[in-house]
Amino acid sequence: MGICIGKSPRPPNASHIYYSNKPAYPRKAFVQIKKKDSRGRVEERVKVSISHTEPLLCVSEDLSMNFSVWGSACILPGIDPHEKVFKTCQDLCFFSSNGQSTILGVFDGHGKEGEHISNFCVKEADEIFNTCIGNFEDRPIELLSSIFETIEKKLKEPNSVIDIANSGCSCALALVHNNILYTANIGNSRAVLGTYNQSLSDASRPVTFSEEKYFLREIAKRRSSDLEKEPIPYQLTVDHTTNNKEEFLRILKSGGRLQQNSDKYGNRYGPYYIWKSYSNIPGLVVSRSIGNIIAEDIGVISKADTATHSLSIEDDFFVMASEGVWNVMTNQDVVNYVAAYKDQAKRIIVPYENCREISVKEACIAQLICEEARVRWLALVENEDSMIEDISCIVLEFDQKTERRSHTGYRMIMERISTLNQNKKKEVSG
């Protein structure tokens, strides 16, 4: 699959990739990282070769219920371009269906135990859905809240082997049940509906006030697709970060200290981090999280925001993703991309090896969004010398004009969870 050639040519420069309007994704690239002086002027450029990580998870399945639904999911592990730090992937996502209802979740761990917390969250969410959905038939939103509450309670138990004092997880869940979409979130994983319902154009949850980076704005223009009609991005979740004014003020009122990082010249930059008044912990951007109990007294809580939306024939698709997508793509960028390429994307995934480039017709739409986000991360690497974040995404494609297909229910394979559980047991016994 892809362009698979034994002897690879010289990798392209990153700027040639992200300033192109071609939706193609080389596995290797050269970046030129800018080193700047105290005034932000470029003093030198350091050339680094990046070999992209392969998907940790990539799945595409028929999730049809009483109408046609296709689901795809992908996780791309992040990387340190300098290869000085081994970056463990702390993202995990899943979907599960019983033929009548479908649940999906994105979990973005942080801190030393972040990988194990996201693993625990997925395992518990999947199990609770499949064993308890019958008890919540007439109150689905309570099921989502109950999942978060149960996870938090179990992680706080004295016999828990996961330390959640200064580690945690951003979580987003969605449930499709009786043609209604329910969402619940804690942290900064986001869920957006791609719709053509004009009445929703002004009804979306407010997007946080983070400053848009000029080079990402220019890249978005260059890589935009010509659409006859753009979908409306209807955000159902709330971003629980210090970029959210209400959350910023809530943390201050709770006694937290908010401060930006500073460079070696003393210039402040980036988002505000949450600290205790007289100590350098926890250093969070997310204002709500499962875990991070050391920061509960300064307002870092695990209370979820929820939303309900009755699906209509004008609702085309639904995207749920971690910050690895939303940090470099706007809601409009994402829904435009899905609308432009979902019909060309591959639904039956075939493993590929030794490919130097992935194109639209050789990956599912969830992977394509992750690949597109990673291309834009290359610009952040060059301009801000940053790491590439873990990137995870789930896409549901709706077709309410199509009758339900033969379907017996589907549960995403959990190999990574089993492996992590075994490793954690070894750590504890050792």
Key descriptive features of the protein:
430 residues; alpha+beta; Phosphatase 2c, domain 1; seven-stranded antiparallel sheet; six-stranded antiparallel sheet; 9 helices; 20 strands; globular
**Radius of gyration from CA coordinates:** 21 Å
End-to-end CA span:
43 Å
CATH topology (level 3) name of the domain at 56-202 and 303-429: Phosphatase 2c, domain 1
Question: Which structural class do the helices and strands define?
Answer: alpha+beta
Q: What is the count of DSSP helices, taking H or I runs of 4+ residues?
A: 9
Number of strands: 20
Strand fraction equals 25-35%
Low-pLDDT parts are: 1-7, 403-409, 417-421
Task: Please summarize what this structure is.
The chain is α+β, with helices and mostly antiparallel strands. It has helices at residues 14-18, 114-132, 140-155, 214-222, 245-253, 323-326, 331-341, 365-384, 415-429; strands at 24-26, 28-36, 42-51, 57-62, 68-76, 91-97, 101-110, 168-177, 180-186, 190-195, 232-235, 257-262, 268-275, 282-284, 290-291, 305-310, 315-321, 357-359, 391-399, 410-411.
